[in-house]
């Protein structure tokens, strides 16, 4: 937005004369006014102009409103320039309705939209109207027994009739829950300002990630898909550029802030560098996007994010455990920790017979109309409308204590310090997705939803392709072995003070290093390495050294 002030002339706000006054000096504006009254060249000495009052004129840069666009074509949208007379305070990143007409720009003769009426609109995420017909659509999503089984049934139907991607129910469920998560809620006496889910699916190409997400977006009638390979960082988050015929600097927000309170699928995220992903840390944690460049601006970016990507410069076959593909792809541990759900898909975890099966028949119960209605219901729920049933919050805390003991924090998908919030987010998303409510307005979260959330997380992290649970089990067993042999290793290091001092000051070493620094033979160096490995002390030397000191 750029702001100008002009003398008010007794004419319509749609008078193209307004366009002739932009970026002109006072004398030039006087000549424009004189010309408009038919004074030849504005040279009449008897004509005097007196400015009685001014009016504001905004230069707005806009793109099609999200409620009226296909979310799978985000990269095809173009900014348009709107010159609006009469206002000066239109907020950034809002949906507006403008009334006006195309007028020729007096400098370039290109068409410009001159607006005389602007109104901030209430969008689909501001309000959702419930009626009997809509309630009938929403009730088909409700679970009568196990919530996780109902979630599986819904996603099985969507896979058969919508995405046509078979054999990947977990992938569909991750996408589904991410889209149906809520903005915020209270939990155990604290306000969880980020209630929405962020999820990551990493896997080989041709596993159906992108296609499933695109088809779900179309079926839900909400959200956007953007390819990070084809988009710049500014296209994802925002940037500044010179827009309009006058080349004014303006902030143009990217897809993530524009979809505040909605959902975005970030596809092909290997197109973003780990440094660019790190620059999104503040947006992901606070839900606000800030740009401090030639111009400064802040806007909300409370956006549900589904991240899809292939391993960076690799394939899933290069990793023993699929979870190890996350760090090269995402980068910093703190950026990985912000994902609530993560999973891996490979070319080989679905048999070809399943992929090439006959498309299921029958009628789809979860129609596009029903899915869109439920999505809008979820997106319009307020924090005070998320209600925990008696015992549900305690169930989250109990589950967090148990889950924190099952997983290592490398990568930090599960951290004992905050896993309770991740469980709570998933449980609320399950309750919302299954239209769990007491009065058609609130989201009622029960202990059964908490149990389903825990089982689902464990299901994802226990999948063979991902291997987070198995990797954690091995590392935790190593830690237990090291702890049991701590006294033995303490005595071993006491008899080798030079070795203890060397280990205290190095993070890794080779056999040759031991030979040279400790002045030992090759066989003895091998024996030292073998002893350290068998006691699993290669990961716990700092604890042993401290005990030795």
Could you characterize what this model shows?
It is globular and about 110 Å long. It contains 23 helices and 18 strands. α16 (419-433) crosses α17. Helix content is 39%, strand content 18%.
Q: What attributes does this structure have?
A:
5-stranded parallel β-sheet, 549 residues, alpha/beta, 23 helices
Strand content: 15-25%
The total count of strands amounts to 18
Poorly predicted ranges = 540-549
End-to-end distance, in Å?
A: 65 Å
What's the arrangement of strands in the largest beta sheet? 1-2-3-5-4
Radius of gyration: 30 Å
Estimated helix fraction? 25-40%
* Secondary structure tally, helices: 23
Largest sheet: 5 strands, mixed
Mean of pLDDT: 86
Short précis:
This protein is an alpha/beta fold and about 550 residues long.
Helix/strand layout:
Blueprint: E1 2-7, H1 17-21, H2 26-36, E2 54-62, E3 80-85, E4 96-104, E5 111-120, H3 132-139, H4 147-163, H5 169-179, E6 185-187, E7 190-192, E8 198-203, H6 209-220, E9 224-227, H7 233-236, E10 238-243, E11 248-253, H8 255-258, E12 263-267, H9 274-278, H10 281-286, E13 288-292, E14 296-300, E15 304-309, H11 326-330, H12 333-337, E16 341-345, H13 352-355, H14 368-379, E17 386-388, H15 392-403, H16 419-433, E18 443-445, H17 447-462, H18 468-484, H19 486-494, H20 497-504, H21 511-518, H22 522-534, H23 541-548
Parallel strand pairs: 3-5, 8-15, 8-16, 9-12, 12-15, 17-18
Antiparallel strand pairs: 1-2, 2-3, 4-5, 6-7, 10-11, 13-14
Helix pairs in contact: 4-5, 4-6, 5-6, 15-16, 15-17, 16-17, 19-23, 20-23, 21-22
């Amino acid at each position: 937005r750029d702001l100008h002030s002009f003398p008010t002339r007794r004419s319509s706000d749609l008078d193209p004369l307004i366009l002739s006054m932009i970026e002109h000096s006072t004398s030039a504006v006087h000549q424009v006014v004189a010309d408009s009254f038919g004074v030849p060249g504005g040279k009449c000495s008897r004509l005097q102009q007196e400015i009685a009052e001014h009016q504001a004129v905004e230069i707005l840069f806009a793109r099609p409103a999200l409620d009226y666009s296909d979310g799978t074509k985000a990269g095809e949208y173009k900014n348009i320039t709107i010159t609006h007379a009469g206002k000066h305070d239109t907020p950034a990143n809002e949906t507006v309705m403008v009334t006006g007409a195309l007028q020729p720009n007096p400098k370039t003769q290109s068409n410009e939209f001159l607006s005389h009426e602007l109104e901030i609109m209430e969008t689909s995420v501001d309000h959702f109207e419930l009626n009997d017909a809509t309630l009938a659509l929403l009730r088909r999503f409700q679970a009568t027994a196990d919530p996780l089984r109902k979630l599986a049934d819904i996603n099985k139907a969507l896979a058969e009739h919508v995405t046509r991607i078979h054999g990947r129910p977990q992938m569909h469920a991750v996408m589904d829950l991410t889209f149906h998560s809520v903005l915020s809620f209270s939990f155990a006496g604290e306000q969880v300002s980020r209630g929405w889910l962020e999820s990551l699916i990493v896997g080989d190409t041709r596993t159906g990630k992108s296609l499933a997400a695109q088809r779900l977006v179309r079926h839900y009638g909400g959200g956007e898909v953007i390819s990070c390979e084809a988009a710049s960082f500014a296209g994802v988050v925002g940037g500044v550029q010179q827009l309009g015929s006058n080349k004014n600097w303006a902030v143009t927000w990217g897809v993530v802030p524009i979809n505040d309170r909605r959902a975005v699928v970030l596809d092909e995220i290997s197109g973003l560098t780990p440094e660019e992903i790190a620059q999104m840390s503040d947006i992901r944690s606070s839900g606000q996007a800030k740009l401090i460049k030639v111009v400064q601006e802040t806007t909300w970016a409370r956006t549900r994010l589904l991240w899809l990507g292939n391993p960076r410069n690799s394939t899933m076959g290069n990793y023993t455990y699929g979870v190890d593909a996350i760090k090269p792809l995402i980068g910093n541990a703190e950026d990985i920790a912000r994902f609530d759900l993560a999973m891996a898909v490979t070319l080989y975890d679905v048999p070809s017979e399943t992929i090439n099966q006959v498309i299921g028949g029958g009628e789809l119960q979860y129609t596009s109309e029903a899915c869109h209605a439920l999505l809008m219901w979820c997106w319009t729920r307020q924090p005070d409308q998320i209600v925990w049933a008696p015992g549900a919050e305690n169930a989250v805390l109990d589950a967090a204590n148990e889950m924190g003991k099952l997983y290592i924090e490398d990568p930090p998908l599960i951290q004992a310090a905050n896993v309770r919030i991740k469980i709570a987010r998933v449980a609320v998303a399950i309750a919302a997705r299954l239209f769990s409510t007491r009065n058609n307005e609130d989201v009622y979260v029960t202990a059964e939803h908490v149990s389903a959330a825990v089982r689902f997380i464990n299901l994802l992290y226990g999948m063979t392709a991902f291997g987070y649970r198995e990797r954690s089990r091995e590392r935790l067993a190593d830690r237990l072995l090291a702890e049991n042999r701590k006294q033995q290793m303490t005595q071993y290091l006491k008899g080798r003070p030079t070795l203890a001092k060397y280990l205290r000051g190095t993070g890794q070493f080779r056999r040759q290093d031991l030979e040279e620094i400790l002045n030992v033979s090759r066989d003895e160096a091998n024996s030292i390495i073998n002893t350290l490995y068998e006691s699993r002390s290669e990961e716990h030397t700092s604890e042993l050294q401290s005990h030795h000191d």
